[in-house]
Write a structure and sequence with these properties.
single chain, mainly alpha, about 90% helix, elongated, Na:dicarbo_symporter_sf, symporter activity, transmembrane
Length: about 70
C-alpha cells in the first residue's frame, strides 16, 4: 500500500516539475522527497488504524490500573 502511494505521489510530483519548466534544485528535490514521505506515513497510519485504536484502548486501561494502584498506597 505504501509503495503504491509513493509511486502515485512521485508521478504527480514529477508531472508537476515537468510542467513547471524550471530546473530542479537540491532544495526542491528534498521538498519532493519530504512530501512523498509525509504521504507514505499518512497511508501507513490509515492502513493500521485498527492497531492504533487497540493500542490506545489498552494504554488507557493500563493507565487506569496504575492510577488505582498508586491511590491505594
Amino acid at each position: 500500500m505504501e509503495l503504491l502511494v509513493a509511486i502515485i505521489v512521485g508521478l504527480l510530483l514529477g508531472l508537476y516539475f515537468h510542467k513547471r519548466k524550471a530546473p530542479m534544485t537540491v532544495n526542491t528535490w528534498f521538498k519532493g522527497l519530504f512530501v512523498m514521505l509525509i504521504f507514505v506515513i499518512i497511508a501507513s497510519g490509515f492502513s493500521h488504524i485498527d492497531d492504533i485504536k487497540r493500542g490506545a484502548k489498552e494504554g488507557a486501561k493500563e493507565m487506569d490500573v496504575y492510577d488505582i494502584a498508586s491511590k491505594s498506597k
